[in-house]
Write a structure and sequence with these properties.
CATH topology of the largest domain: Beta Polymerase, domain 2
Strand order of the largest sheet: 7-6-5-8-9-10
Helix content: 40-55%
CATH superfamily of the largest domain: Glutamyl-tRNA reductase, N-terminal domain
Strand content: 15-25%
Shape: globular
CATH class of the largest domain: Alpha Beta
Length: 352
């Protein structure tokens, strides 16, 4: 019995490739069933976030399952397998176990120590469990990963301070404007990330508005909770005339901010500069927007410089965290060996 993980992340693939493999809005559960129908892995979990896509599986014949996943991802993304493979990593136990513990703990994130990933790992596991895609091995592994992440936050300070994609995004906005006090900011979207963005913007003094494409009630709820303003999609044209910075974070699978739309905004703005930060995956903003004069577009990959600075500040804590994860990996491998007589195998490739 072997635990494998195949995937790509912000270290190995640009946002253009990651969005081709994104599995939003329950799509991962459908993919799990498709993998099951093809008899790829005996147990399986898919973790899909803005910075990674990873498929965790339990198999007896490693080669056929790994090749099957690669072929499936090629079909799903409509890209040649040869185009995908340089960005993919394949890990086998114990490296696969160590990797999940690091991911759940925020140690493998673009923003080291971020807290959002723990909830994403939990939801990915629960979605697979609801679909009856997990068994004794992955049930134990993912439940233990949640405990490892909580233990790491209890016994180290890796997650202290401002960490997470939302706070780093607002750090970028603050870097652009030097001071966000009084800056007019608009958040497009009403999900959990949008709520974090709105809260961070208001806390730093921005005049912040949240715009809903589908749920004005949710926008009002978010705005009321943090002291911002709420608006509906029909208000976006008017809001865009005056906003300084637009941050997009919706679950839409197609661009909701188009080149033609932004050109119209710019005419009504009399060409005053507009800064757009798109942290959605798939991206919410048509990349052609960056061709427009006085429009400055940033995406997830542009957050990396700030994230790297964050990593440098937290580097001294990584050794302690790695040691804790290593102990937990050894403990889990002991359980696996007792239950199944599994032996560790070397990793085929590590994330860069």
């Amino acid at each position: 019995m072997e635990i494998c993980v195949l995937g790509l992340n912000h270290k190995t693939a640009p946002v253009e490739l990651r969005e081709r493999l994104a599995m939003p809005n329950g799509r991962a559960e459908q993919v799990l069933k498709e993998l099951e129908s093809r008899r790829i892995f005996e147990e399986r979990v898919i973790l899909s976030t803005c910075n990674r896509l990873e498929i965790y599986g339990v198999c007896r014949t490693q080669g056929s399952s790994i090749n099957g996943v690669k072929d499936y991802l090629s079909e799903y993304s409509r890209l040649e397998r040869a185009h995908l493979e340089p960005s993919l990593y394949v890990l086998r136990q114990p490296e696969s176990v160590d990797h999940l513990f690091r991911v759940a703990s925020g140690l493998d994130s673009m923003v080291i120590g971020e807290t959002e990933i723990l909830g994403q790992v939990k939801e990915a596991y629960l979605a697979a469990h609801r679909s009856r895609q997990t068994g004794k091995v992955l049930n134990n592994l993912f439940q233990r990963s949640l405990k490892v992440a909580k233990a790491l936050r209890t016994h180290t300070v890796i997650g202290s301070g401002r960490v997470g994609v939302a706070s780093i995004t607002v750090d970028l906005a603050e870097k652009i404007f030097e001071n966000l006090k009084g800056a007019r900011a608009t958040v497009l979207g009403t999900g959990e990330m949008a709520g974090q963005l709105l809260r961070a913007l208001v806390s730093r003094g921005a005049d912040a508005t949240v715009v809903s494409l589908t749920s004005p009630e949710r926008a009002l709820e978010l705005a009321s909770a943090v002291g911002g303003k709420a608006a509906s999609a029909g208000d976006l044209q008017a809001i865009a005339r005056h906003t300084d910075i637009l941050i997009t974070s919706t679950g839409c699978t197609n661009p909701v901010v188009t080149e033609a739309g932004v050109r119209e905004w710019m005419r009504s703005r009399h060409e005053n500069p507009l800064f757009i930060i798109d942290i959605a995956l798939p991206r919410n903003v048509d990349s052609a927007v960056q061709r427009i004069d006085n429009v400055y577009l940033y995406d997830l990959d542009d957050l990396k410089a700030i994230a790297d600075k964050n990593l440098a500040l937290r580097g001294s804590q990584m050794e302690e965290c790695a040691a804790l994860v290593a102990r937990q990996t050894e403990h889990y491998m002991g359980w696996l060996a007792k239950e199944f007589g599994s032996a560790g195998c070397p990793a085929e490739a590590r994330p860069a």
